[in-house]
Design brief:
heterodimer; A: 292 residues; mainly alpha; 73% helix; globular; B: 532 residues; D-Maltodextrin-Binding Protein, domain 2; 2 domains; five-stranded mixed sheet; 22 helices
Chain lengths: 292, 532
C-alpha cells in the first residue's frame, strides 16, 4: 500500500517541478537578489543586508506611485464594472444582432495593449489628435491630454477602461447566462418591475461573479505599466508613473537589479495584502457566502 | 559497471568541455584563403536593388581594405556572425542592409537582432557580464562606453590604419577611445545644433514685424535669450500661411526619451567655462556633482520659461515628435541631432531647402565654479552628444569576421549612401564628410549645404566642447537628471530644488557604483572636454 502511495505521488512530480521552476525558484532568487548590491557595474550576488529596503523606505517616488495606483486601479475597475455590467445586461436579453454586439464589445480586449496605447496617444495628440479637434469644433479649449497632470491621468484611465471593460463584460455576461430562471419567474409573478428585479434578484445573484470579476481586474490593473510606457512615459513629471513602470525604470532601464528586487518584493507583498483585504471587504459588502 | 559509468562520465565531460570551448568564444577560427572578387575596383554602388525605399543614387566603390572589392574576396562561408542593434530604421536598417550585403559578398551567415532603445542596454550588457558570447558585433549609443569598455575587443591596428578610419575626425576618434585604446568602431557622428526656417527668417515682412515688435534684427539666435525671444514672437502666428498657427520651438522633452540631451544642450554655454578645467558634470577631483550649480539651474529656468513657445503637446515630445514638428513645418526652430535636419532635407519634405543649420545658441555670460560668480563674457559650447557606435565583443568567436563586417559597414561607398538617408541615423563623422559639394549633389541649395558643413566642421574646431557623462551607470545618472528636469517642467518642483535632488541622487549613485570607478571613467570625459 505504501509502495502504491509512493508510486502515485510520483505522478505529482512533473507538476511540482514545474511549480518550483516557474514560481518558487524565481521568487527565492528575487528575495536573494534584493539583499544584494547587484547593479549595472557590479553584477554580483554580494550581500548588503537590508540596504535596499532602507533606501526604498525613503523613496518617495515609489510610494507616490503606489498611492497613484490605488486611484488608477480602483477608479478604472469601478468604471469598468459599471459599464461592463450595463452592457452585459443589454446583450443578455433578447436584442437584435446579439451575437454581433457580443463580438464587437470584445474587440478592445483582443488588441495588443501597447499597440492600442500608441493609437490612443495619437487620438489624444494635442495638436493633431481628433479629441482636441472635436473640442475645438464644439467651441471648447484644447485639453493638455498628455502634458497636464490631471488630463494625463484621465487619458490613461480612459485607455484602461476602453481596453479592459470587455473583460469585465465577458465575465459578467457569463455570470448572467448561468443564473437560474426560477427567481426571475417568481419576481415576474410577484409583479416586480425591471429596477426592482435587478436590485432584489439579479444583483444579489451576481454577487459572487461580481466579486471575482473585480478582484481579477484589480490584480491585472495593479500591474499597469505598458500603457503608461507608451502614452505618457510616467509624465508629466512623474504624475502618471505606476509602480510597474517605476520598477521597469529602476530594474531594467537603470539595471539596479538588487534595488529592483527589493521594490518588486515589497510591491508583491503590498498587493497580496491589499487585494486580500479588498476581497474580504467586497465579499462582505456583496454578502457573498463562502469564498468569492 | 562502475568502469562503464566512469567511462561514460569522462566521455560526457569531454563532450561538455568541447561544447563549452565551442560556446565560450575567443578561440580563433581558421581563415579561409581569399576567393575571386565579385566587384571591380571603382564599381558603381547603389541600394536600389534592395527595395524601392532606397534612393537611386550611386557612388563609386573606393579602393581600400573595406571596399566591396576587397571584402568580396573574403570567404566566410559556413560561419555565422551575430549582431545586436537598435530597432529599424535608425541604425537598425543599415545594420540589416549591410548584413545582407556582407552575406552576399563573403558567404557568411549574419544574424541581426533588432531591439527597441529601452531594452538595448540590458540586452547587450547582461550577456557580456555573464561572459556569454551572445553577440559578436554590437551597435549602441556611444555614451555607454563606460559600461561596455571592459568587454570590448580593441580595434586591431590593421583597421585603425585603413583610410576610412584615418579620416574619422579627432572628436569622434576621442569618442571611440577608452583609456587610450580604441574600443569602439566609429560608424556615426552626432552633435546637437540649431535648425531654423530660413524662409521665415529671410522674409522681409517677418523681419519688419520682428524689428517693430522687439527693436532687434531678425537673425539666427546666438544666445538662448535670443532664441527665447524669436520663439516667443513667432508662437501663435501663421508664418507659413497654411491657415494654422505655428510655434516657436520644438524640443525633446519626453522624460524617458532623450530629454536629458536637450537639457545638456541648453546648459552647455552656461556651464562650460573655457577658463575652468576639470569637469562639467562633476568636479573630477572631488566627484562632487555640479548639476545643481547656477549654470545648470539657469538652463532649467530657461527651459521652463520656453514652454510657452512649444506647440500643443510639446511638453511630451520624443525625438520623433520633434523631427515631425520641425520637419512638418509646425515650428520655426528646433535643436537636436542631425537626423532631424537630414529628415527635413529629404526630397519629399515640405521644408526642404527652407532650413538652415547653425551652432547651438550660446550665452552672454558663463558660470565660473572656481570663483562662484558669472563671468560676463559671451560663450559658445558645442555639445557632442551621443551617437551610434559599434564594437566587437571580446567573446566574439571570429573577431576578424566581425571587424571586417564593421569595416565594410563603414566603407566610403556605404557611408556616402547612408549619410543621405535620414532615417538611417548615420551622420557625418569623417573629415571628408564636411564637403558642401557632396550635399549639393543630393539636391541641397548651396547656402543650406554650406551652412550645414560649416556648422559641423566648426564644432570640430572648437576647444570649448561638452561631451556626455560617459561613465559606468550613465543611464542611472541620466534617468535621475531627466526625472528632475521633468519635475521642474511639470511644475512639481522649482528648478533649484529639482536639481538639488538630482545632485543628491548622483552622489548616491556614485557611492553605489564606486567613487574611484566613476572618477577614473570621468577623467576620460574631462580629457576630451579640456582637450588634454
Amino acid at each position: 500500500m505504501d509502495g502504491l502511495r509512493r508510486h502515485k505521488s510520483m505522478f505529482l512530480l512533473p507538476g511540482l517541478l514545474t511549480l518550483v521552476l516557474i514560481i518558487i525558484f524565481p521568487l527565492l532568487f528575487t528575495i536573494r537578489v534584493s539583499f544584494s548590491g547587484w547593479n549595472v557595474s557590479n553584477p554580483q550576488m554580494d550581500f548588503v543586508g537590508g540596504a535596499n529596503y532602507v533606501k526604498m523606505l525613503h523613496d518617495s517616488r515609489f510610494w507616490a506611485s503606489i498611492l497613484r495606483l490605488g486611484l488608477l486601479a480602483g477608479g478604472t475597475v469601478l468604471i469598468q464594472y459599471v459599464i461592463g455590467f450595463g452592457v452585459a445586461l443589454l446583450v443578455w436579453r433578447d436584442l437584435r444582432g446579439r451575437r454581433f454586439w457580443r463580438v464587437l464589445f470584445l474587440i478592445p480586449m483582443m488588441t495588443t495593449p501597447v499597440v492600442m496605447a500608441a493609437i490612443w496617444q495619437t487620438i489624444f495628440h494635442e495638436s493633431l489628435g481628433p479629441v482636441n479637434d472635436l473640442l475645438g469644433r464644439l467651441g471648447l479649449s484644447p485639453v493638455h491630454w498628455l502634458t497636464g497632470s490631471g488630463p494625463a491621468l484621465a487619458a490613461l484611465m480612459t485607455v484602461e477602461v476602453w481596453q479592459w471593460t470587455p473583460f469585465m463584460f465577458l465575465l459578467l455576461l457569463a455570470g448572467l447566462l448561468s443564473l437560474p430562471k426560477e427567481p426571475f419567474m417568481a419576481a415576474a409573478i410577484d409583479g416586480a418591475g425591471v429596477w426592482r428585479t435587478f436590485r432584489k434578484v439579479t444583483f444579489p445573484l451576481m454577487a459572487p461573479v461580481s466579486v471575482s470579476a473585480i478582484i481579477i481586474r484589480l490584480i491585472e490593473a495593479s500591474k499597469l505599466s505598458d500603457s503608461v510606457y507608451v502614452l505618457t512615459s510616467g509624465g508629466p513629471g512623474s504624475s502618471t508613473e505606476s509602480p510597474g513602470y517605476y520598477l521597469y525604470i529602476r530594474g531594467l532601464k537603470e539595471q539596479q537589479t538588487g534595488y529592483g528586487g527589493a521594490l518588486s518584493l515589497t510591491y508583491l507583498v503590498l498587493m497580496i495584502v491589499t487585494l486580500t483585504v479588498v476581497a474580504a471587504l467586497l465579499a462582505k459588502a456583496f454578502k457573498v457566502k463562502g469564498n468569492a | 559497471m562502475h568502469n562503464l559509468s566512469r567511462q561514460g562520465l569522462i566521455a560526457a565531460a569531454a563532450v561538455a568541455a568541447l561544447a563549452a570551448a565551442g560556446c565560450a568564444g575567443g578561440g580563433q577560427v581558421e581563415q579561409k584563403p581569399d576567393k575571386p572578387a565579385l566587384f571591380q575596383p571603382g564599381s558603381a554602388i547603389g541600394y536600389q536593388k534592395y527595395g524601392k525605399d532606397y534612393p537611386a543614387t550611386t557612388v563609386k566603390d573606393v579602393p581600400g581594405p573595406c571596399s566591396y572589392e576587397s571584402i568580396s574576396r573574403k570567404d566566410y562561408s559556413g560561419q555565422t556572425l551575430k549582431i545586436i542593434t537598435h530597432a529599424v530604421p535608425v541604425i537598425g536598417e543599415p545594420t540589416k542592409l549591410h548584413a545582407k550585403q556582407f552575406e552576399e559578398l563573403t558567404g557568411a551567415k549574419v544574424e541581426v537582432v533588432n531591439v527597441p532603445f529601452g531594452e538595448l542596454h540590458q540586452k547587450i550588457l547582461t550577456p557580456l557580464q555573464a561572459g556569454q558570447p551572445a553577440y559578436d558585433v554590437m551597435f549602441y549609443p556611444s555614451l555607454w562606453i563606460g559600461d561596455m569598455a571592459p568587454y570590448l575587443a580593441p580595434v586591431p591596428k590593421e583597421y585603425l590604419d585603413t583610410p576610412g578610419m584615418k579620416d574619422v575626425t579627432k572628436a569622434f576618434m576621442g569618442v571611440a577611445t577608452w583609456n587610450g585604446t580604441v574600443v569602439q568602431y566609429p560608424v556615426d557622428g552626432d552633435r546637437h545644433y540649431l535648425k531654423i526656417r530660413t524662409d521665415v527668417l529671410k522674409d522681409p515682412k517677418q523681419q519688419a514685424a520682428y524689428k517693430a515688435a522687439t527693436g532687434r534684427d531678425l537673425e539666427v539666435p546666438k544666445t538662448w535669450a535670443e532664441y527665447a525671444q524669436v520663439a516667443s514672437f513667432f508662437t501663435g502666428k501663421d508664418f507659413d500661411g497654411d491657415g494654422k498657427p505655428n510655434f516657436g520651438s520644438a524640443e525633446v522633452t519626453k522624460r524617458d526619451d532623450l530629454m536629458f540631451s536637450a537639457f545638456i544642450s541648453r546648459a552647455a554655454p552656461y556651464v562650460k567655462n573655457p577658463g575652468v578645467k576639470g569637469g562639467v558634470f562633476f568636479d573630477v577631483e572631488t566627484m562632487q556633482p555640479l548639476i545643481n550649480t547656477p549654470g545648470f539651474v539657469r538652463a532649467l529656468d530657461d527651459m521652463v520659461k520656453a514652454k510657452s513657445a512649444w506647440p500643443p503637446g510639446g511638453a511630451n515630445f520624443g525625438l520623433g515628435d520633434e523631427i515631425f514638428s520641425f520637419g512638418g513645418g509646425q515650428t520655426l526652430m528646433s535643436y537636436s541631432w542631425d537626423d532631424a535636419f537630414i529628415q527635413a532635407q529629404q526630397p519629399d519634405s515640405r521644408v526642404r531647402n527652407k532650413v538652415e543649420a547653425a551652432p547651438l545658441p550660446g550665452s552672454d555670460e558663463v558660470y565660473n565654479r572656481t570663483t562662484k560668480a558669472w563671468d560676463k563674457t559671451p560663450n559658445q559650447a558645442p555639445y557632442f552628444t551621443w551617437g551610434w557606435t559599434s564594437a566587437v565583443a571580446k567573446t566574439a568567436r571570429n573577431q576578424k569576421m566581425a571587424f571586417d563586417y564593421l569595416c565594410f559597414f563603414s566603407n566610403e561607398a556605404n557611408t556616402a549612401l547612408d549619410l543621405t538617408i535620414g532615417r538611417f541615423g548615420v551622420n557625418p563623422y569623417r573629415n571628408s564628410h564636411f564637403d558642401a559639394a557632396f550635399w549639393e549633389k543630393q539636391g541641397w541649395d548651396k547656402d543650406t549645404a554650406e551652412a550645414y558643413v560649416r556648422t559641423l566642421s566648426d564644432m570640430e574646431k572648437s576647444t570649448n566642447r561638452v561631451f556626455d557623462l560617459r561613465v559606468p551607470g550613465v543611464n542611472e545618472y541620466m534617468s535621475s537628471l531627466a526625472n528632475g528636469v521633468a519635475a521642474a517642467l511639470a511644475g512639481q518642483k522649482a528648478p533649484q530644488q529639482a536639481l538639488d535632488d538630482v545632485a543628491r541622487e548622483w552622489t548616491d549613485i556614485t557611492g553605489q557604483i564606486g567613487k574611484d570607478k566613476v572618477q577614473a571613467a570621468y577623467r576620460n570625459v574631462v580629457a576630451l572636454e579640456d582637450n588634454s
